[in-house]
């Protein structure tokens, strides 16, 4: 009985290994294509991307000039950690923001991943990311009923931009 069990377990393990070997390359390629597509969405002027030592990704135009940087952030929202990707130009102004993963409440806090909310950050610097309801100088509208999620998203974008250590942009 034990030998029969060993035979079937070995056969199942061998088949599983074959499936893994056949799909691993496809999964890796699909993951890389998704990353490349996302990078092009976040830094549309970039044609070449290069990893920086600090974990950021630098984007270059066809002439080799730096057009921006992509950085990640992981702020804690209402229901857990969010994974954010932020693209900034060379002056530290946000180009594009994407939330790739979150656990916020569906239909409420999950709206922080919507383009309508995230587009509020475009063109702004770190000093402008406060919510209007928290600061008279704030420039970001919170999602009604999802203030904690809105604050977390704003904090994540701010942390990402500040991690670039770009001098303050005075209108340029």
Keywords for this entry:
172 residues; Sufe protein. Chain: A; 5-stranded antiparallel sheet; 3 helices; 5 strands
Concise structural overview:
This protein has a domain of 115 residues: Sufe protein. Chain: A, CATH 3.90.1010. The radius of gyration is 21 Å and the shape is flat.
Please tell me about this protein's structure.
The structure is a single chain. It is flat and about 75 Å long. The longest helix is centred in the N-terminal third of the chain and has 41 residues, at 2-42. The model has no long low-confidence stretch (mean pLDDT 90). The protein has three helices and five strands; from the N terminus they run αβββββαα. Strand 4 and strand 5 (94-101) form a beta hairpin. It is α+β, with helices and mostly antiparallel strands and 172 residues long. Helix content is 35%, strand content 17%. Strands 1-2-3-4-5 form a five-stranded antiparallel sheet. It has helices at 2-42, 115-118, 147-162; strands spanning 48-51, 57-60, 66-73, 83-88, 94-101. It has a domain at 48-162: Sufe protein. Chain: A (Alpha-Beta Complex), CATH 3.90.1010.
Q: Give the termini separation.
A: 77 Å
Radius of gyration: 21 Å
Structural class: alpha+beta
Shape: flat
Share of helix, binned: 25-40%
Secondary-structure element series = HEEEEEHH
| Proportion of residues in extended strands | 15-25%
């Amino acid at each position: 009985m034990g030998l029969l069990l060993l035979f079937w377990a070995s056969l199942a393990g061998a088949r599983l290994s074959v499936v893994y070997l056949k799909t691993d390359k496809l999964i890796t390629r699909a993951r890389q294509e998704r990353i490349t597509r996302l990078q092009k969405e976040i830094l549309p002027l970039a044609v070449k991307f290069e990893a920086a030592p600090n974990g950021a990704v630098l984007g270059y135009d066809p002439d080799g000039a730096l057009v921006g940087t992509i950085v990640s952030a992981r702020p804690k929202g209402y229901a857990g950690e969010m994974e954010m990707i932020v693209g900034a130009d060379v002056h530290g102004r946000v180009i594009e923001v994407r939330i790739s993963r979150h656990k916020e409440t569906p239909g409420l806090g999950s709206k922080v991943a919507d383009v309508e909310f995230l587009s509020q950050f475009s063109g702004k610097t770190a000093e402008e990311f406060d919510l209007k309801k928290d600061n008279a100088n704030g420039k970001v509208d919170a999602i009604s009923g999802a203030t904690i999620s809105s604050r977390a998203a704003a904090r994540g974008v701010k942390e990402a931009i500040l991690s670039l250590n770009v001098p303050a942009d005075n209108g340029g």
